[in-house]
TrEMBL record:
This is UDP-N-acetylenolpyruvoylglucosamine reductase. The gene is murB. It comes from Mongoliibacter ruber. Keywords: Cell cycle, Cell division, Cell shape, Cell wall biogenesis/degradation, Cytoplasm, FAD, Flavoprotein, NADP, Oxidoreductase, Peptidoglycan synthesis. GO terms for biological process: cell division; cell wall organization; peptidoglycan biosynthetic process; regulation of cell shape. GO terms for cellular component: cytosol. The lineage of its organism: Bacteria, Pseudomonadati, Bacteroidota, Cytophagia, Cytophagales. The keyword Cell membrane does not apply. It catalyses: UDP-N-acetyl-alpha-D-muramate + NADP(+) = UDP-N-acetyl-3-O-(1-carboxyvinyl)-alpha-D-glucosamine + NADPH + H(+). Pfam families: FAD_binding_4, MurB_C. Gene3D superfamilies: 3.30.465.10, UDP-N-acetylenolpyruvoylglucosamine reductase, C-terminal domain (3.90.78.10), Uridine Diphospho-n-acetylenolpyruvylglucosamine Reductase, domain 2 (3.30.43.10). Its cofactor is FAD. Residues 16-188 form the FAD-binding PCMH-type domain.
Length: 337
């Protein structure tokens, strides 16, 4: 394990926040991960795990060892006439994996194109977009137990997937470090084009024959039109989760706000957080070097030299404002460090 001291984390977070880590190391394999765990225990210093840095907000310098997971590799481990099973290193870039699967004509992840971050974070967050969640293609994962240093496998049920949730964000938070993920993909695609603007975008692209590449291209086009490029403006994508409310609560809101959008679920109605934030008056608001994006109010941005603590305060003001107006408390999707 190659250890560095007092390292700027500016290149390692998409918000573009310049904070330091007391110690920094990159893990290229499981052995590096185990060494990092041992170092943190021996020196009584917290161990913070980093993937693509696209879902974190740095609010201070970290008196910790920040371990960037960079375990690579995509391996075909099983194949039938209908399906393939692949094992992917936790450090593989998520969108690179999607493009790899499209090239191989393996279906199942095309709707998740251009989601930032790494493969290791995908089951932790149960990432999802345009009608698909990672749990639909997930088979199992391998992780290192921080207490025992043993290498363990988790199947689908053990991960306890929920909306942008898994067991690793709840009762097993900071207990394991994911090293690889196994996915089951389809050779015979079932196209999912019913969500959002996919169908309209496919028509505008004049797609004559539907394919997983066409769906991926449409999703990329939609995401690029709605979400700012972190290389241009610092951000972490959607800052808040879309809240789910009871049906009775939604009906009451509908009477007061006839235009409120809602998507019925088994356990209630999901309301777009972006709509709530915009109605509360935050869209496009700028406060010095930080603000709310002018096109997508779900995205908080760093225009340059912004401070993570300021963005956290802004997010709390938005939460309070939306709760006061609608009686709904938004939950951050971004992790504060």
């Amino acid at each position: 394990m190659h250890l560095q001291k007092d390292v700027s984390l500016l290149p390692y977070n998409t918000f573009g926040i310049d904070k330091k880590a007391k110690y920094f190391s990159i893990a290229n394999n499981i052995h590096d991960v185990i060494e990092a765990i041992q170092f943190s225990k021996k020196n009584n210093i917290p161990l913070v795990v980093l993937g693509g840095g696209s879902n974190i907000l740095l609010t201070k310098d970290l008196e910790a060892l920040l371990l960037k997971i960079d375990i690579q590799g995509i391996s075909l481990i099983k194949e039938t006439s209908e399906s393939v099973w692949i094992e992917v290193g936790a450090g593989v870039n998520w969108h690179s994996l999607v493009l790899y699967c499209i090239e191989k004509e393996w279906a199942g992840v095309e709707n998740l194109s251009l989601i930032p971050g790494t493969v290791g974070a995908s089951p932790m967050q149960n990432i999802g977009a345009y009608g698909i969640e990672i749990k639909e293609v997930f088979e199992n994962l391998t992780a290192i137990n921080r207490d025992t240093l043993s290498i363990e496998k988790f199947d689908w049920a053990q991960c306890e997937f929920g909306y942008r949730e898994s067991v690793f964000k709840n009762k097993l938070k900071n207990k394991y470090i994911i090293s690889s993920v196994c996915f089951k993909l389809n050779k015979n695609p079932v196209f999912n084009t019913n969500y959002g603007a996919i169908q309209d975008t496919l028509q505008s692209m004049q797609v004559e024959e539907l394919s997983i590449k066409a769906i991926s291209d449409a999703v990329i086009k939609i995401r690029q039109s709605k979400l700012p490029d972190p290389k241009q403006i610092g951000n972490a994508g959607s800052f808040f989760k879309n809240p789910t409310v009871e049906t009775a609560k939604f009906e009451a809101l509908k009477k007061e706000y006839p235009l409120i959008p809602g998507y019925p679920l088994q356990d209630g109605v999901k309301i777009p957080a972006a709509w709530l934030i915009e109605q509360a008056g935050w869209k496009g608001k700028r406060f010095g070097n930080i603000g709310v994006h002018q096109n997508q109010p779900l995205v908080l941005v760093n225009y340059g030299d912004g401070d993570g603590a300021e963005i956290k305060i802004l997010s709390e003001k938005i939460q309070a404002s939306v709760e006061e107006k609608f009686g709904i408390l938004l939950s951050p999707e971004v992790n504060f460090l």
